[in-house]
Amino acid sequence: MxxxxxVTGGTRGIGEAICHRLKKQGHTVIANYGGNDEKAKAFADxxxxxxxxxxxxxxxxxxxxxxxxxxxxxxxxxxINNAGITRDGTLHKMTFDxxxxxxxxxxxxxxxxxxxxxxxxxxxxxxxxVNIGSIxxxxxxxxxxxxxxxxxxxxxxxxxxxxxxxKFGVTVNAIAPGYVDTDMVAAVPDAxxxxxxxxxxxxxxxxxxxxxxxxxxxxxxxxxFVTGSTMSINGGQHMY
Length: 240
Ligand code: CAA
Prior knowledge:
By secondary structure, the chain is an alpha/beta fold.
């Protein structure tokens, strides 16, 4: 059955692959994005998927953005909280803004989007929320106290909200991707990335589509008994 799905950070990287996959599953997909208008337009032209711009770190913007999506497309039954940023740096060099921006977008975005959509799912007795965490939220990463804290927070947020949604048919799960061949990972210095890839048992970076397939399962009716879980898709880099 086709449903209305919002994917935050949906026009690039992992989000883009998730949009493609959910569309293939027959859903009406809306790709939220935060900044890159040019890429969003190209994505919309190429895929026919609707794009809507708002900052997921802005509470009011999420409430307004989701309300206008619902008015235009109908009730939102599936939310993929994928939008995320990095501001890497060792703690002694990291600024408060680096900390705050990452917490506001990566973790705050999950809260804001859930506030906008979870009450409706609860009332309709069906919903799927998938939060994109990270291997670095599970095991930490040198130079990422902000990102690791936010992603680790996502895993706690997921387990708490899953308990609230369970009796209303709303599942809430996380996926913890490892290193995937996106622009975000390409920004890691080559010498650092080489050492990271050397520690991935499968011997390569992941592909965005490999994360999207996990989302497809968790959002389907087949995933109804899976809630509060974290699916690690990381090539064996961290077995958790
Ligand atoms: N463990 C221990 N020491 C380390 C280390 C590690 N993992 N990495 C670097 N160091 C050491 C270096 O050897 C160096 O030591 P010396 O001064 O004694 O030689 C010291 O730390 C300084 O390191 P850098 O030169 O790297 O410092 P920098 O300030 O130039 O850069 C950094 C720091 C920005 C954190 C850089 O190391 C970096 O980009 N690291 C990668 C961070 C990362 O993996 N980000 C993931 C982004 S993708 C993502 O987040 C998606 C996802 O979910 C997986």
